[in-house]
Amino acid sequence: MKIDVDKIPEEGLNLVEKLDPEKISLDVGLQGVNFIESIDAKANVRKSGAEVFIDVSLESPVEYTCSRCLAKFRDVFKKAFNVNYEVKPGDVLEVDEDIRQEMILDSPMKVMCKPDCEGLCPNCGQNLNVAKCECEK
Q: For residue 30, what are the CA distances in angstroms to 45, 108, 111?
């Protein structure tokens, strides 16, 4: 998401973009998070003197992999945040890195399909949320 500082009107600017997760280098798939579609990004941009204030909201369908039972499930990733920049005339702001960092910070460290997920049996691999296994305790 690029913003030309000289093109921000006094009343502000509203931007709507679809971001490709690969183009903003989101490697959260290693953490069990997979963005399955583009990310809907909306930004409200205001300029005051030598500062630009941006309110960003993001939304995207996501496929998670549970870290306990390895089941896949879908949800919607939503994030809203604010950033501001000191600018000079002629500057062009690139907001993608801030978006990337905010999304990584907001991604769960440990994804679980439900709070009481029982995980997999360490002996036979049975998903204990689906059925009990015959292994000796």
A: 33, 12, 11
Query: Tens digit of pLDDT per residue, the chain (137 long)?
Result: 889 999 999 899 999 999 888 777 665 555 667 888 889 999 999 999 899 999 999 999 988 889 899 999 999 989 999 999 999 988 999 998 898 888 888 878 888 999 999 999 999 989 999 999 888 76
pTM above 0.90, yes or no: no
Tokens of 100: 């990337």
Q: What is the DSSP string of the chain?
A: -EEEGGG--TT-EEEEEEE-TTTTT--GGGGTEEE-SPEEEEEEEEEETTEEEEEEEEEEEEEEE-TTT--EEEEEEEEEEEEEEE--TT-EEE-HHHHHHHHHHHS-SS--SSTT---B-TTT--BTTT-------
